[in-house]
Design brief:
The protein is built from 10 helices and 6 strands; from the N terminus they run ααβαββαβαβαβαααα. The chain has about 270 residues and is of the alpha/beta class. The protein is elongated, with a radius of gyration of 29 Å. α5 links the parallel β4 and β5. The chain has one domain: P-loop containing nucleotide triphosphate hydrolases (Rossmann fold), CATH 3.40.50.300. It comes from Burkholderia vietnamiensis (strain G4 / LMG 22486) (Burkholderia cepacia (strain R1808)). This is G domain-containing protein.
């Protein structure tokens, strides 16, 4: 597949072509990208999902690249925290990790912040639409549930479920899970909600390669549709150019014949 030629033909569709490039790599492991706003518990969640303290956890914004780890046949990405500056380099990388690289997207939102704000809801809406279109999974993870009371948690969860529509929602506490795992407290592990999330990720990851095949077909069909439209536009342009040419030739002939008649008349009068 000549992606360089495709890029040259579709200069405004870099994200789609970059995704096509990822899909063309049949040996690439399933990729899980964790995304969300800064300080919503993304890195802590990732560390507990993989069982290692690999990703930096800090109150300062540190992740400015797509931090990655491959473990047990799955590649995990910690995307830079999203914020309002969509032109920044770290937001560009977060978007790349979300739309071009990821097979499974975990959208993280801390229940301490209440409902999703406008930018989060817009992103979740886009993720849901893409999940329907491409077949890629998008899961909503409500983090830090140990930091609010049960009534607040129930209210926030209800509102967020209304906001995200058909997307699956998983309330979790990475802190509870870590303590339960380290201290052997099974009830704390169960209350963390992490087992349900890990199980769902495992289920989805097992079907990634089949999902990619369908997504690859969809991508190719979309690009083929764009080619058909571009071809039709070029044909219309060519037809217009031919019409203009024929009109110019006809006008030239009429003018030539008029001049020829004038010259013939003048010579006849001599």
């Amino acid at each position: 597949m000549n992606l360089t030629a495709i890029r040259a033909y579709f200069p405004g569709r870099d994200a789609e072509i970059s995704r096509l490039e990822q899909l063309a790599d049949a040996d690439r492991p399933p990729v899980v990208t964790v995304l969300g706003k800064f300080n919503h518990g993304k890195s802590s969640l990732l560390n507990e999902l993989i069982g290692e303290s690999v990703f930096a956890v800090s109150d300062a914004r540190q992740t400015t690249q797509l931090d990655a780890l491959e473990q047990d046949g799955v590649r995990w990405l910690d995307a830079p925290g999203l914020d309002a500056d969509v032109m920044s380099e770290d937001d560009r990388l977060a978007l790349s990790g979300t739309w071009e690289v990821a097979d499974i997207r975990l959208f993280v939102h801390s229940v301490r912040e209440g409902e999703l704000d406008g930018s989060e809801q817009a992103l979740v809406t886009d993720l849901a639409a893409d999940a329907t279109h491409s077949g890629r999974a998008a899961l909503v993870v409500l983090t830090q549930i140990d930091q609010v009371d049960e009534a607040t948690l129930a209210n926030v969860e209800r509102i967020v479920r209304d906001q995200v529509g058909a997307l699956e929602v998983f309330p979790v506490s990475a802190t509870r899970y870590k303590r339960g795992r380290e201290d052997g407290k099974h009830l704390m592990i169960e209350k963390s909600g992490m087992r349900a999330l890990k199980s769902r990720i495992t289920q989805v990851a097992a079907h990634v390669h089949a999902a990619r095949a369908g997504e690859l077909l969809t991508c190719c069909n979309v690009l083929r549709g764009h080619l058909v439209i571009a071809d039709a536009a070029l044909r219309d342009r060519l037809a217009m150019l031919k019409l203009d040419r024929n009109q110019m030739i006809a006008e030239f002939k009429r003018e030539f014949w008029r001049l020829e008649a004038d010259v013939y008349k003048k010579f006849s009068e001599v």
